[in-house]
Amino acid sequence: MFARRASLRLVLPLFLAAGFAGAQSVTEFPIPTPGSIPISITAGKDGALWFTEVSGNVVARITTSGTVTEFPIPTPSASPQGITVGPDDSIWFTERSGGKIGRVGGIGGVTEVALSNPGSGPVGITTGPDGNLWFTEVSANKIGRLTVLGELKEFAIPTAGGPLQIVSGPDGNLWFTESFGNRIGRIGVGGSVVEFPVPTANSSPYGIAAGPDGNLWFTESVGARIGRITPSGTVTEFALPGGGSPRGIALGSDGNLWFADQIGDRIGRITPAGQITEFAVASPGGPAGIASGPDDALWFTEIDANRIGRIGVGPCSADAQTLCLNGSRFQVRVHWSVPSQGTSGIGTAVPLASDTGYFWFFSATNAELMVKVLDGRAINGHFWVFYGALSNVQYTITVVDAATGETKTYENPAGTMASHADVNAF
To answer: What is the mean pLDDT of residues 358-387?
Structure first.
């Protein structure tokens, strides 16, 4: 009934220094299958990222440490495209050439649902507000709806548009890009469709994501712009400073939109106010799809370089004496001293999780200080800093918010065994 042949391989990361803006830290992980053309990516409920390989004809999983597992698709040359987490927490994907919707279960088994038209060309896919899968059919010019039980319903788009990507909007509707029609479409869960033209002619809208401001944000792959559309249909466009071809777009943990610039070999960030910053990746890489990961960083596919990339949301660059926490937004360093002995130094950093790490002062086998930076904005609008010590030496903790430049210092006097919670830190 289904096929499973998972290939498992631990790959070593390639570390690159991004030089287009700031000191953004980019890490890349090679994909085991040569020439696989990774295209779309999403964060799973299992703490890993999942992506499609067009030429590899597999759906793959990558952990935040870089271990890649590939799951072959039963249909040959299916050309997997879009990917999302379904309402059942499984991974669902589209097969553009196969004319099917696929599903990867909890143990890696791949099953498929054939569409009524084998040549419909399904591309984008998302989970809708009604608990069903919604997807685009670029060749059939339709939007499809699929239940987890396999019940299919399709809705025709009024004009020829070539729907590509689709996302659930903040207004309870589904929103999609029309690459050929140069429009943004909105479809209700009942199937009613409204279309809105994009001001720049022939801009070829591609990716789309829900923003933190209640609007939808989309990329214009030919127009080299990022667009914003309100639920009522008002469109504003922001030109990329250096041109390019933006494809995928996703909301980052820092409250900004992040996009993949395929031709420019850059990852871009745009604030809700429209300020754009771009960060270079390896050339030629061809960034295409992008998603926010469980570690608060952005993860992206590189179709030319056959790699999966990771970029932190802040410019903090981790080293032996620096913790980069919360998607690399916060830089943490510790200076210690023992005046009675005339000794001092910088603590050695050991990361544990995306928001937690510890420092040792004298021996790698003895953790002296634990530090955690939590995102408490949903509760009181602030980031929180916690620390607890297994040492009574004198030390100073310095925490820098890389997004704003704000700095907090915490002093521990000699002879004190301290723990502290600052719930209004940033």
So the answer is: 94
